[in-house]
Write a structure and sequence with these properties.
The chain is α/β, with parallel strands linked by helices. It has eight helices and six strands. About 35% of the residues lie in helices and about 15% in strands.
Amino acid sequence: MTQGVRASWPRYFMDIAYLVSERSTCLRRRVGAVAVLDRRILATGYNGAPSGVPHCLEVGCLRAQLGIPSGQRHEICRGIHAEQNVIIQAAVHGISLRGADLFCTTYPCFICAKMLINCGVKHIWVSENYPDELSKAMLAEAGVEVFHLPKGEDVARPLGESSSDEQARGGTEDEKEGGGA
């Protein structure tokens, strides 16, 4: 980024999600998430074991020990997903996520997608994809818009849209200004 050029709002919040992910204690994938409403951070979360329980960094990965592939049997894990921790932190502090945007380093799994829908999250911004077609279908069915914002980039596009489509339309005014967050 050149001096004097400001990051877009979506990039700003996605960069924060990546910073949050640095607290992760997962041995397989570090994930960070940030809930935002009216350009204000409501809550953050990263994936890791519950408070007071030994982390995977200390005792190893249960999923790896059992040979469970990525994207399967989410319930067999010591860790709580970053999106779940955002919801928990908001609840603990009495903060509603209704109407919020979620910036997450990785696409939410099916379990997290259902929770985010019920919290009233309206937009999800992701940097990295995750192979969970059920999640994608449910979010679309619920009308939750998902945007792809690659790490370090300023312009997002609706997930599934090719970059040539994005270039042809030049991005939306909200994307250019960073609206929605």
